[in-house]
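Hi there,

I know you've been waiting on this one. I reran it after we fixed the sequence typo, so this is the corrected version. Both the input and the resulting structure follow.
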Amino acid sequence: MEEVVPGLDLKDAVDLKQWYLDCYGGQMTDTSSLKGCMNTNPGYAGLTHPCKEEDGKFVPDLKYRYLSEDVPTGMCFNKGLGEILGVPMPMTDKVLEWAQGHIG
């Protein structure tokens, strides 16, 4: 990355699991993997995806912030980074295409 973007300083960059350990150290009960960190982080306890009633059934609320905020600020950033680095991101492309059709 530093070769692609001259002057970029990544000395403080860490992988996502390390970020969880740095930010939530001592709060998670399973730090053996990224999945363990995420699943046992008390900050996420009880979080579910909100639903709304439609035609007598409950369906995911696709306008809720998990999609309306996380897709443009997270997934689009990752896609752009992949483009800069020349890394194909076919699954990200599929998710973004799906999200565009559902959240605009």
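Quick highlight: Strands lie at 51-54, 57-60.

Best,
R. S.
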